Structure formats: structure tokens, C-alpha cells
Amino acid sequence: MIAIEYGTKECQFCYVLRPNRSLSWRQNLWFLAGLCAVTLIGIAPLVAMGFWPVLPFAGLELLLVGAGLYRVMCRCHECEVICVAADSIRIERGRRGPRQRWVIGRAWAQVVLRACPHRWYPSRLLIHAHGHAVEVGRFLVEEERKKLAQDLTHCLRGQVFEP
Rounded mean pLDDT of 120-137? Predict the structure, then answer.
């Protein structure tokens, strides 16, 4: 998902990129609790009949599902902010705050949408300057990535565009 702010205090254009997520933290916790309840209710008769070794395996399964769900939710809450000022481009990436930060000179910056040679892989959106490249919008769908590349290219050229 791309949100655009025009003419903020520090920059002319500010792009806020976030991945699409279907559930919030609380909804994921409810999902995991429901999955745990269904699993434990399902194996309760087996444990009552004496098949107690099933219990540690079910616990391990729920632990792995919970760890995977936590990892996915952490990645879904990452955010990228691209601020285009008069003389520079600032790219920040992080979850609760900026963990990584790059500042690129606007005069030398170039937006490149590099297609992958294999059809099933997504393209890569890169901002090049002085031999360094920063990839942005890794989590965007292909149409959003193309639109962002077009908007950034117009923005760097100083052209006014309609959202």
C-alpha cells in the first residue's frame, strides 16, 4: 500500500510504503488461540485413552506455528518512507522507527525498475546514485511497484503529476 503526502515541512513528496496485511496483531492472537483450542480439544480423547506421547508433538506443532505467525506479523509491520526534498532523497526503513536510513543526492539519483529474467519472480525497484543502489517496495505487488517507479521518476524530474 502506498500513501503519498505532498509538500510537507521537510520534503516536497513523501511516500509511505506498507505491506498489505489481512489481520491485526489482536486478530492473529485470536486465530492462534483458536487453533490451540481446537488442537488440544482434538487430542484430549487420545491422551485420555493413554496415547500421551501425542501431547508433546502437538505442543511442538503449536509452538512452531506461533513462531511462524510471529515472524510473518513482524515483517508485515515494516514500513518504508521515501522523502524527496529539493536536493536529496531520504529513504528510511523500519518497524517501530527507522532502523535503516539512506540519503541520496537528488541530482544524481536515478529510478530503475529491473525486471527479473524469470517470469515468476517480481521486478526490483532500485534508486541508484554514485554506484550505490537502494531497493524499495520489496513487498509491493507488481502494479504498485510500476506506479511507484513512474511517480518517483516524474518527481525526480521535477514534473507535476496527478496521483
Answer: 88
